[in-house]
Design a protein that fits this description.
Number of helices: 17
Shape: globular
Largest sheet: 7 strands, antiparallel
CATH class of the largest domain: Alpha Beta
Structural class: alpha+beta
CATH architecture of the largest domain: 4-Layer Sandwich
CATH topology of the largest domain: Glutamine Phosphoribosylpyrophosphate, subunit 1, domain 1
Helix content: 25-40%
Strand order of the largest sheet: 3-2-4-1-10-9-11
Number of strands: 22
Radius of gyration: 23 Å
Length: 508
């Protein structure tokens, strides 16, 4: 899960890029980067940290130009490294930079091809660098001295033939323009819009429509699966479907957790989808206890993503809705953090219970989803420490039982709290008096109601069905070894050791 942004305007784009990345900050808090084009010069700044920390005044002054792209990153590999911050750049052909959200599933095969056949060197472990080099190589094969949209589309078509997996990306070709493109399934989101100015029209491509709204752009539409949207340096927009028989299969977890509620993804309002999730969840509780036979005194959301579903749930159950937790907004999303110890520590730092909302009451906590169970376990204990009589839990999503391979750094299968457990067993593990999950059928209906044209969603974390058709047990086993908390902590330690060596060498 990352956030990407691209802008072509009639004036300097740096402030717009900065503001847009702050809107997308929820999609990645590990690193941030921006690159702009000013005539025949590229200006790049990227580093580990939040947008506000990476870009200081001296950096902003250097990022000149009316065209640029930006990126916020969270590490799919689970490590923090400025070397893997984006956008990434290659100087041939023309000078190409790229920012990518997603994950390539045939990355090892592509790495071998790039080295053996394309004679290209890779400097990181990032699949985004692989995608950049494949695109750049195909653009070089086109061989145009002054490439136009047709040459860019041809290169992207050839890139689609080589790359498998999920990718929503923006790329900037020096002196040519910016192109945004989506994989043939449209797994990761991408949208584009325009803003009329006194001197012309500005265009923006972004991961979520909220970035367009806040910067005053009118949303045109989502980039279609397999489509490329090209904006020339002089502000001419051209679109083209670059694959045969695309199948629209967006990621359902965007609707559950990843996206901002004020975004519209694939013509579905995230906010309305989450409201419907709360209503469906209430129906499941009523089906179990009837509307008034339960003993719930109060419904309390786990901020922030549990809030939208909790409100209609409380209304349908005819139970009080209360804010029982105060959130420290300067702590990152625990779902993203590598390592169990860091996640445990951050939960206590992030949330504080309001005792009067818990004391002597039977509390229903509403969360967007439950992954490892680490966070919800601590929140349940915080609720009991605040005096709750009983603590129930409702999850707006079904049990997460399978790893994600399309750009969300979920843990290995054995680290899921729902792995090989029933609802009753999960409730005992996390310390709840009872627990209820959304059904996958109800979850899908919540999204499909917003856009009936989407006949299928990517739901692999819930049902183990990987839409690209190239995921087998061997692939998942390799992924498991790479993503385990032990392996992440080992890589973090190695990275720290390497950095210490660099600092010692520089000091000497």
């Amino acid at each position: 899960m990352c956030g990407v942004l691209g802008i072509v305007a009639d004036s300097a784009v740096i402030q717009q890029l900065y503001d847009g990345l702050t809107v997308l900050q929820h999609r990645g808090q590990d690193a941030a980067g921006m690159v702009t084009c000013d005539g025949d010069r590229v200006h790049l700044r990227k580093a580990v940290g939040l947008v506000r920390d990476v870009f200081q005044q001296q950096h902003m002054h250097r990022l000149a130009g009316n065209m640029g792209i930006g990126h916020v990153r969270y590490p799919t590999a689970g490590t923090s490294s400025s070397a893997e911050a984006q956008p990434m750049y290659v100087n041939s052909p023309y000078g190409v930079t790229l920012a990518h959200n997603g994950n390539l599933t045939n990355v090892e095969e592509l790495k071998a091809d790039l080295f053996r056949e394309d004679l290209r060197h890779l400097n990181t472990e990032s699949d985004s660098e692989v995608l950049l080099n494949v695109f750049a190589n195909e653009l070089q094969r086109v061989g145009a001295h002054q490439p136009g949209p047709e040459h860019v589309f041809s290169a992207i078509s050839a890139m689609h033939d080589r790359c498998r997996g999920a990718y929503a990306a923006v790329a900037m070709v020096l002196g040519v323009g910016i192109v945004g493109f989506r994989d043939r399934f449209g797994i990761r989101p991408l949208v584009f819009g325009k803003r009329d100015t006194e001197s012309g029209t500005d265009y923006m491509i972004a991961s979520e429509s909220a970035a367009l709204d806040i910067l005053g752009y009118q949303r045109i539409r989502d980039v279609a699966p397999g489509e490329a949207v090209f904006i020339s340096e002089d502000g001419v927009l051209t679109t083209h479907i670059c694959v045969e028989s695309p199948v629209h299969t967006p990621c359902i977890f965007e609707q559950v957790y990843l996206a901002r509620p004020d975004s519209i993804l694939d013509d579905v309002s995230v906010y309305k989808a989450r409201l419907r999730m709360g209503e469906k969840l209430a129906d499941r509780i009523i089906g179990r206890y009837s509307q008034h036979d339960h003993d719930i005194d109060v419904v309390i959301p786990i901020p922030d993503t549990g809030r939208t579903s909790a409100l209609p749930l409380a209304y349908r159950l005819d139970v009080k809705y209360r804010e029982g937790f105060m959130k420290n907004r300067y702590i990152g999303r625990t779902f993203i953090m590598p390592g169990q110890m860091e996640r445990r520590r951050s939960v206590r730092q992030k949330l504080n219970a309001i005792e009067l909302e818990f004391k002597g009451k039977n509390v229903l906590l509403v969360d967007d989803s439950i992954v490892r169970g680490t966070t919800i376990n601590q929140i349940i204990q915080m609720s009991r420490d605040a005096g709750a009589n009983k603590v129930y839990v409702a999850s707006a999503a079904p049990p997460v039982r399978f790893p994600n391979v399309y750009g969300i750094d979920m843990p290995t299968r054995h680290e899921f709290v729902a792995n090989d457990r029933t609802e009753e067993e999960i409730a005992r593990v996390v310390g709840a008096d009872w627990l209820v999950y959304q059904s996958i059928e109800d979850l899908l209906s919540c999204a499909v109601e917003g856009n009936p044209r989407i006949s299928r969603y990517e739901c692999s974390v819930f049902d183990g069905d990987y839409v690209t058709g190239d995921i087998d047990a061997q692939y998942l086993e390799r992924l498991s070894l790479h993503r385990s908390d032990d392996m992440k902590q080992r890589r973090e330690a190695e990275l720290s050791d390497d950095q210490s060596v660099i600092e010692l060498h520089n000091h000497a």
